[in-house]
Amino acid sequence: MKKGLTVSVIFKAQSLNYGEGFGNISELKKVSRGDGNQYTVASRQCIRYDIVRLGAEIFNWNLQVVDKSKGTVQFKDELTIADSQEMDLFGYMKTGKKTESSQGGSDTRSAVIKLSNAISLEPYRSDMDFLTNKGLADRINEHPNLANVEQHLSYYTYTFTIDLSRVGIDGEIEITNEEKCKRVLEFLEIVKILNRNIRGRQENLSPVFAIGGIYNIANPYFLGRIKLNSSKEGFKIDTKVIDDVLESTFLGNNIKDDTYVGINEGCFINKNKFEEKLGDRVLGVNSFFDNLIKFVKKYYGV
């Protein structure tokens, strides 16, 4: 039976992903919107990088899976998803080698876990940080070098979606249900404590808010539906758009019936709005993920 797990999260962090920049200015990656504002972006690639990094550090995920035997860095031909959690969960492409009798081609697997970019929920206001290496330069009586770095402290949101029926299956290869379950649970544990090392800082990307559940289709229901409203009292999550999603149906099933919310106390001032809508399915963030873990174990019969 097909099932899809999807969660949209909010976390709070600063200056997560830089582009190439120019001169002595380091620019954050940004997108522009029709409201006239710019919003900073942490790409799905950088989120994937840190998930895989923590998978190796905490759960000993196998990262010795790449080479350059065909002129480009890619996954080794002889390895399969049975050898690599990364290849299983995030997909791969192995290019074929052209010969006199063959034009090559590619062997690909689309990602089982789909990640979105993380987009800031607060607009970028051109904050800059002026830096020098004065401490080093003074040691040898030299003039310091100067740099300008864009800075942005904001709440961010991203979404992940997992097609549970595709985990651990690739053509004729299929791993055990125990290993399928283990890989999904390890991913969820990583999301709970996700962090990013950047420019001497370690930023905390662990969720302060999460909404989602396990549904009859792998669809990112709440992607693009998370918005913040600010006031002197604090931040509110805009519940109007979310309410419309909760009241929608698919194949006769109401989305609300399978949806849970995790929210940390003190981060947002309108937790009661979710409690009015979802009752006892509004939990703390840790309890929210514990609930997902319980459902995943049940799905795989572990």
What does this structure look like?
With 302 residues, the protein is α+β, with helices and mostly antiparallel strands. It has one domain. It is built from seven helices and 24 strands. It has helices spanning 44-59, 85-90, 134-139, 177-192, 239-246, 271-278, 285-300; strands at residues 4-14, 25-26, 30-32, 38-42, 66-67, 74-75, 92-95, 106-109, 113-115, 118-120, 128-132, 146-150, 153-163, 169-170, 173-174, 195-198, 201-204, 209-215, 228-231, 234-237, 249-250, 253-254, 260-263, 282-283. The strands form eight sheets. Strands 1, 3, 4, 9, 10, 13, 18, 23 and 24 form a nine-stranded mixed beta sheet that branches. Strands 2-12-11 form a three-stranded mixed beta sheet, with no helix packed on it. A hairpin with a 2-residue loop joins strand 19 (228-231) and strand 20.
Global geometry: globular
Count of runs of 4 or more consecutive helical residues: 7
Number of strands: 24
CA-based gyration radius: 22 Å
TL;DR?
With about 300 residues, the protein is an alpha+beta fold.
Question: What keyword list fits this structure?
Answer:
single chain; 302 residues; alpha+beta; nine-stranded mixed β-sheet; three-stranded mixed β-sheet; 7 helices; 24 strands; 32% strand; globular
Question: Which helices and strands occur, and which strands form pairs?
Answer:
Blueprint: E1 4-14, E2 25-26, E3 30-32, E4 38-42, H1 44-59, E5 66-67, E6 74-75, H2 85-90, E7 92-95, E8 106-109, E9 113-115, E10 118-120, E11 128-132, H3 134-139, E12 146-150, E13 153-163, E14 169-170, E15 173-174, H4 177-192, E16 195-198, E17 201-204, E18 209-215, E19 228-231, E20 234-237, H5 239-246, E21 249-250, E22 253-254, E23 260-263, H6 271-278, E24 282-283, H7 285-300
Parallel strand pairs: 2-12, 23-24
Antiparallel strand pairs: 1-13, 1-18, 3-4, 4-10, 5-6, 7-8, 9-13, 10-13, 11-12, 14-15, 16-17, 18-23, 19-20, 21-22
Helix pairs in contact: 1-4, 4-7
